[in-house]
Amino acid sequence: MVKLYDEGVFLVNGNNIVPESEATPDMNKDEAKKGTIAYSILKAHNTSDDMDKLKIKFDAMTSHDITFVGIIQTAKASGLEKFPIPYVLTNCHNSLCAVGGTINEDDHVFGLSAAKKYGGIFVPPHVAVIHQYMRETMAGCGKMILGSDSHTRYGALGTMAIGEGGGELVKQLLCDTYDVAYPGVIGIYLTGKPNPGVGPQDIALAIIGEVFGNGFVKNKVMEFVGPGVSSMTTDYRNGVDVMTTETTCLSSIWRTDEDTKHFLTVHGRAGEYKELNPADCAFYDGMVYVDLSTVKPMIALPCHPSNTFEIDELNANLPDILHEAEENVRALAEKKDIPFSLTDKVKDGKLHVQQGIIAGCAGGNYTNVMEAAHILKNAKTGNGEFSLSVYPSSMPVYLDLVKKGAISELMAAGAVLKTAFCGPCFGAGDTPANDALSIRHTTRNFPNREGSKPGVGQLSAVALMDARSIAATAANGGVLTSAEKYADDYTVPEYEYDDSTYQSRIYNGFGAADEKADLVYGPNIKDWPQMSPLEDNILLKVCSKIMDPVTTTDELIPSGETSSYRSNPLGLAEFALSRRDPEYVARSKEVDKIEKARIAGKSVTEEEPQLEAVYAKLSEKFGNIDIQKTEVGSMIYCVKPGDGSAREQAASCQRVLGGLANICSEYATKRYRSNVMNWGMIPFQMKQEPQFEVGDYIYIPDIKAALDGDMQDIKAYVVADEIKEISLYIAPMTEDEKKIVRAGCLINYNRSRR
């Protein structure tokens, strides 16, 4: 059972839930707010005197090879001299050589050279996925870690971790701060104990299904408390914790106990442990009550982790549920006529899936793989269409799985064992066949994230499940099966950590920067193009209008093979909105030509004759328009953009194509909105339905003055057959964020401060 308390809640003595409406007079809400674990950690890392407006400095940072080149290039252009805190560069997104030529290894060589020059930590390909390495070597109780991957979550180890776009990491590298209003804190009260056959993915999906759609924890901290925490091992908790990203929360933190201490001790870091518990009276802005004993094996059908069902419920209602999921997939497909079906995979009343994957920071953990191996011992996956691949999350995990015999058991059953790699999570490994259904213990099942290409007539889909039920399905020849059918009293053997692989291969140069060392550039590693500061007035051309309820970062810039251009800003930008609005790039480029003509002092109306009529209409209303002080840029409208990845490319690709603003009803995540601002775009919102179409121009005079005001009623004018006035607003921005937007991007802002 998952129950939401949609009001403030006092937690007394760690066990007693008292809704705010039932509080006694002696319960002081303001003081009790200071009793959360989150408050104590945020206070310890806040460099300002104001707990309402936090200025956070982190203990460590991490990035993988899709993001670290751009981050280091941005920081270098901004005056970087050395890494001031441990910065881990991992290479777990490393199989792009097939489509990117040498760029795959070129980025790795660049990363190693950066670690040597600036004093970083470099984890080579196949050695560990980003978050497992951080769990094993960097996370500790009371710490804060910042990562450029959205699944930067180490709350089960007592670390408040946040996944953000590269701009926020650049600020830390330049000894600036992460500025954010004090977030709401939602208690996740756990009671009971998971039943045999129920894994961490099941617990996570049960929670995600209840809180994503209503935004219950959006941009808030999820604080896991209650007796149920201690019913799970820390390795198991890690699997639940990493999936909290899919709720759109800001961060997570868990109470710690002896098992947390044991985990850190096993990893040679007993000194990183300290007890973290809420105070005797702690106040939460809401509460999610989870009885772990009631959670059943779950499945999240395409195309979102919140599209959740109990496996038994699905199996009992296959035609109806699958038909609806099938329609959802088709609705999101770029080409509507691509043959795709889920219902055709039902044979004799049973759902047959074509592929199983256990991988990454969510699925490849020791406990998950051991449980899967136990289920598959003496079983066979069969010689039909179904296949199973397993990716242990790090070499130390892999090594102990070998010692424990789990690898041989999986291989004997027909599973294929692979190295630590995030490919199945971002569309660069084990792409299913066209029209196939893959079940995965990974983090996301967004449209085409598995690697299919609807633009050329390919479409497959992913459902998320726990490793235990994936193994049960594999043992049943690919017929969807709940792990409860195979549950017994199996106890996972104690994990033995051996970091000899790390000692042999990882470069640790923190505190030993070599300023004389050279950065090694491959031919596809390019600098950021020049970006202009904000003008007094702006003229936006609507280049895309997306009315879907949510627009993911995968739609804004696809993951997978497009990342072969990850270090080439203009090359990568060619793929912006390619799966959602293929004409967007061409439209934006045309607008960018106009702006470049303006900057060069040329006639913008000669570059775009249509502007003659636009400026004529505006002049009738406002008098003569100063064209040279009117910046021209492209704009995207989405209802709710930014769910998903922290990859800043979702915003930077818009910007390098001439993007100047976004307009939306609301932003799905803080991290995407932060990326928009760090790349010099204005994060407009509007309350009414959009009264404009693709191709329309929107004029906003005195935008700088608007940024200096309350930003709550910014007059804008849609230039169509007639001029229509609309009202825009901007949610609160810090003074630095305003300066960044005025400067045109974070790079310009940092250069101006030198």
Write structural notes for this entry:
The chain has 754 residues and is α/β, with parallel strands linked by helices. The protein is 32% helix and 19% strand. Strand 2 and strand 3 form a beta hairpin. Helix 3 (68-77) packs across helix 7, helix 8 (200-211) runs parallel beside helix 9 (234-242) and helix 14 (366-376) runs parallel beside helix 18. The radius of gyration is 26 Å and the shape is globular.
What key attributes describe this structure?
754 residues, six-stranded mixed β-sheet, Aconitase, domain 3, Aconitase, Domain 2, 32% helix, 4 domains, alpha/beta
Summed up, what is this model?
By secondary structure, the protein is an alpha/beta fold. It has 29 helices and 34 strands.
Task: Describe the SSE topology.
Layout: E1 2-5, E2 9-12, E3 16-19, H1 29-33, H2 37-45, E4 53-56, E5 60-63, H3 68-77, E6 87-90, H4 97-100, H5 103-118, E7 121-123, H6 130-137, E8 144-147, E9 160-163, H7 166-173, E10 178-181, E11 185-191, H8 200-211, E12 221-225, H9 234-242, E13 251-254, H10 258-266, E14 281-284, E15 286-291, E16 298-300, E17 308-310, H11 311-316, H12 318-332, E18 346-347, E19 350-351, E20 355-358, H13 360-363, H14 366-376, E21 387-390, H15 395-403, H16 406-413, E22 416-417, H17 423-426, E23 437-441, E24 461-464, H18 467-475, H19 500-505, E25 507-508, E26 537-546, E27 551-552, H20 553-556, H21 569-573, H22 584-599, H23 604-607, H24 610-622, E28 630-638, E29 641-643, H25 649-656, E30 659-664, H26 670-678, E31 682-685, E32 697-700, H27 703-708, E33 714-719, E34 723-728, H28 735-743, H29 746-753
Parallel strand pairs: 5-6, 5-8, 6-7, 8-9, 11-12, 11-15, 12-13, 20-21, 20-23, 21-22, 23-24, 26-28, 27-29, 28-30, 30-31
Antiparallel strand pairs: 1-15, 2-3, 2-14, 4-10, 7-25, 16-17, 18-19, 26-32, 32-33, 33-34
